[in-house]
Amino acid sequence: MYLFNQDPLSMNLIRMKKIDRSQIRARIPYGAWGTSYFPSWQSSPLAEVNIGQFAGESAAFILSKRKVSTSIMDYLIIGSTVPWHWKFWNATTVAQSMGRRIPGFHVEQACATGLQSIILAISQVETGASDAAGVLTFDRTSDSPVGVFPERRSYRRSEVISDVWDNFSFDPSTGAAMITSAGIVARKYKIEKTETDELTAFRYYQYFEGKGTGFLDRIAVPFDILDVQGKSLGRVEEDLGVRKITLDDLKAMRELDTCVTSGTQTHAADGMATLMVTAVDRVRDISSRPEINICFIAKAEVRVLPSHMPEAPAMAVQKLLERTQVNMEEIKVVKDHNPFAVNDAVFSKIMKYDWKKMNNNGSPLVWGHPQGPTLTRVVIEALEEAVDLGGGYVLVFGCAAGDVGIASLFLVD
Prior knowledge:
By secondary structure, the protein is α/β, with parallel strands linked by helices. It is built from 13 helices and 17 strands. It has helices at about 50-65, 90-95, 115-125, 165-170, 180-190, 195-215, 215-220, 245-250, 285, 310-325, 340-350, 365, 375-390; strands spanning about 1-5, 15, 25, 35, 75-80, 105, 130-140, 145-150, 160, 220, 225, 230-235, 270-280, 295-305, 330-335, 390-400, 405-410. Helix 1 packs across helix 2. It starts with a strand and ends with a strand.
């Protein structure tokens, strides 16, 4: 197969029959990770907070619960998509909220932000620029800001944009809403509503199964939210807004576009997720199980035809597997960012892969879509599941605004 040499983003690949971990400097220490729960927008005290400050304080709290000192962190990469107060100061002010005065930067690529942040942190360590880089992604879709943009080429001379609502409903490259892309792709691949209803019902079963076994408790951390006076605004201790939905419920829902109903698409949410990336010789100082090796292998990105976003992840996976010479049968855990059930149905059709084999313990279709941290949580859940299964290849992929698909391969052993 192929393995990145030195800089994993350089796409300088070396053909190898077996992975030699001694050539990879960067590791993700097992257990040095965690997320908040993802309450649906406008449903929790997270709608009231400065999400950057909350994320920094929460990351420090999560790492302390994992018995990881933030003092080991020498760099911070943050990712978010919705503007927040003091965003201009990006990673430095968030690091300050963690109690650390370290450099860093902010990255944003719509719903791919969470995965790109991890890959950039891996590159930071792999190249020797850092020994321990933190990844912290977050977003608050609730009460998203409204921007006024002077635009002399516009007949109104200025444009007003509600950041979440207007970006969901209008792609400036196509003039169409994101939901339109799901309908177009469903028709292209002849997906039936019967399948997306059944697929969604199964995704809900997987989520509540994972919740029932305690899997989610190992990932997510509850938080008491305080106001500026230190008074309680409430407690976030579950993915608020998620309720059990039956197949009959889904069948009764009206189509908003082909194969898209209010039940077979995700919902906006608030939240954060964090993990550490370190040099291999620092893992023992951080991980609760240092014998576990977690390496990044490769990534691929594609951009497909206009308004064809739900097919882009499958195309990215095809490109990734072709480069790495890994096949789907060799992959132990498959997990994705699936804003529409159509995404998984199309992936299954293109890759000839049973959608029941993927997204164990939950997925964004069910637990929500706070954009920035979505794929970070997906990665954390996927790696945790791979450890439970004794290791192996982990495939994580998803789509992003602009008809982009991204896929990545990790190895747990």
